[in-house]
Design goal:
294 residues; alpha/beta; D-Maltodextrin-Binding Protein, domain 2; nine-stranded mixed sheet; 11 helices
Length: 294
């Protein structure tokens, strides 16, 4: 039966990040021969080649990339577990995953109120689309997930927020569509479009368009609206996104125009059913209920 040593996994992750054994050894405060032996032992125990040496350093193999991804999750889970078990749990960290949404302000309000009572509580926000957040919830890597739009959340305990996001299009201020009050399906046909992953996965867009989203001329997709907004400024396309997550003020050179018929995406805070919450996460959940009942 294969076994993985946590310390060796940490060595491997640091080496993969540095892409160089010598630099990784320096960061780990061990000698280069010692690190090389540890990595060789890891490969031998797994029976897999994890990396190949090249002139500039190392390059991960396919098996190495898989182990790198999984090892990062294992190390993060170890850190989260130790945080929860150390001392007074109220001093711990709350782990929250979220899609890109202006609705994250609700999380901010709760954290502000929570830290006023427990100033040593910290939080870690992790961004991703619905699939990313679901995977992390299922694996216990985060305590809560803030989901946007129509998502199947039957396996989670959920709190529906009394708020929603409005979808629309961001374009350059000199775009011909910028003078319109609303964007219709016909306006998007033939245009080069940039989509967030979460927008592309929303079923209501197909209903709104009257055709599959993939029939549009989608130039590119993205996880971060900020990066996509730079592409808009450079004339790569126009961006389908949520209102309020990108600045479109008078000096931005950008304009947000909502869709018509209007599409609004609801917001839901979810956690894994019967999950064991840390003291800090329990206090966050209590405070969330108080803030959103007031």
């Amino acid at each position: 039966m294969l076994e993985l040593d946590l310390r060796t996994l940490k060595y491997f992750v640091e080496t993969a990040r540095e892409e160089n054994i010598t630099r990784a050894a320096e960061r780990l405060n061990i000698t280069q021969p010692t690190l090389s032996r540890q990595l060789a032992g890891l490969e031998e125990s797994l029976g897999k080649k994890l990396y190949v040496r090249e002139s500039y350093g190392i390059r991960l193999t396919e098996e190495g990339r898989l182990l790198f991804e999984r090892a990062q999750e294992i190390i993060e889970l170890e850190h989260k577990t130790l945080t929860e078990l150390s001392g007074n749990n109220i001093n711990g960290t709350v782990y929250i995953g979220s899609g890109e949404t202006a609705g994250v302000r609700h999380i901010g309000r709760v954290l502000r109120a929570l830290r006023a009572k427990y100033p040593r509580i910290r939080y870690r926000m992790i961004s991703g689309d619905a699939e990313d957040i679901s995977v992390k919830l299922d694996r216990g890597l985060i305590d809560f997930g803030l989901f946007v739009g129509k998502v199947n959340l039957m396996k989670y305990e959920c709190i529906t927020l009394n708020d929603s996001d409005r979808w629309g299009v961001i374009m350059r201020s000199d775009d011909e569509l910028s003078v319109k009050k609303y964007i219709t399906p016909d306006d998007l046909k033939g245009r080069e479009l940039l989509f967030s992953h979460q927008a592309k996965s929303q079923g209501e867009f197909s209903e709104w368009l009257g055709c599959p989203v993939n029939e549009l001329n989608i130039t590119g997709t993205h996880n971060l609206a900020y990066n996509a907004s730079i592409m808009v400024r450079e004339g790569v396309g126009i961006l389908v996104t949520i209102e309020g997550i990108i600045s479109t003020g008078s000096r931005s050179g950008l304009k947000f125009v909502p869709l018509k018929p209007e599409i609004k995406a609801g917001l839901v805070l979810a956690r894994k059913k019967e999950s064991v919450l840390s003291g800090a996460a329990k206090k966050f959940l209590e405070e969330f209920g108080k803030v959103h009942q007031s």
